[in-house]
Design a protein that fits this description.
Layout (H helix, E strand, L loop, with lengths): L6 E2 L18 E6 L1 H4 L4 E5 L7 E3 L20 E8 L5 E2 L1 H4 L9 E5 L15 E2 L3 H8 L3 E4 L13 H8 L3 E4 L9 E6 L10 E3 L3 E4 L1
Parallel strand pairs: 5-7, 6-8, 7-9, 9-10
Antiparallel strand pairs: 1-13, 2-3, 4-10, 4-12, 5-11, 11-13
Helix pairs in contact: 3-4
The protein binds N'-Formylkynurenine and zinc ion (2 copies).
Length: 209
């Protein structure tokens, strides 16, 4: 039976895309044109490692935490479950309990509808501090979310990030799930092997199982 097609759940990286307030804007430009080199066009990008769809390394919020090149790539390839938790200001144990996520290794949360990627969202769903222990109990190793962060934009304590990390749950942010049905999928969302980094852009794709 023909395998289903892969679905791209990554934000396009464009010069118009919104990034975290005050962070490095995304820019692609040509460094050299084919006319100049006589053979090829060569481009360059300037970006925060948190622009668009990306993973956080623990080093992002824990100075002693693992850096991107130290992460277990198995986390970023394998089965995942998409659930729809749109409409909540925050998500924790109570909102997740009804979904019965026992034994789900990677959980992808759909919280947004009609997100405009050129505007940083004024409000977005965040995760509560009780989410880490709950996800650990259920065996979740990777938590993906369609928001710019698992914490509020003005957070300094980064309580959701620490709660997830203390419970061995890794973080994938800014995925795009608006056209994705809840259900079980294969996920690939590999970070780049950036030495010493606190995060990495990823091309996240899923295929229905
Ligand atoms: N995607 C990031 C957003 C973030 O935390 C951040 C990104 C750039 C500059 C500051 C940030 N956070 C807190 O000040 C995150 O991991 O939540
Ligand atoms: Zn991030
Ligand atoms: Zn984060």
């Amino acid at each position: 039976m023909e395998k289903k097609k892969w679905i791209d759940i990554s934000q396009p990286l464009t010069n118009e895309m919104a990034v975290w307030p005050g962070d490095t804007p995304f820019s692609f430009q040509l460094s050299y044109t084919k006319e100049q080199t006589g053979s090829v066009n060569i481009g360059q990008i300037t970006t925060s490692v948190h622009s668009g769809t990306h993973i956080d390394a623990p080093f992002h919020f824990d100075h002693e935490g693992k850096k991107v090149h130290e992460l277990d790539i198995d986390l970023y390839i394998g089965t995942a479950r998409v659930i729809d938790v749109t409409g909540y200001e925050s998500v924790g144990r109570a909102e997740l309990e009804p979904f019965g996520i026992e034994g789900v290794p990677r959980l992808l949360l759909r919280t947004m509808t009609d997100r405009d990627l050129t505007v940083f969202p004024e409000k977005y769903t965040v995760l509560r501090e009780d989410v880490g222990p709950y996800l650990k109990e259920k065996g979740v190793r990777l938590l993906g979310i369609d928001t710019p962060s698992v914490d509020p934009v003005d957070s300094k304590k980064m309580l959701a990030h620490h709660s997830l990390h203390e419970n061995d749950v890794f973080i994938l942010e800014n995925i795009v799930l608006e056209k994705v049905e809840p259900g079980n999928y294969e996920l690939i969302a590999l970070p780049l092997a950036i030495e010493g980094a606190d995060g990495s852009p990823v091309r996240a794709v899923i295929r229905p199982i």
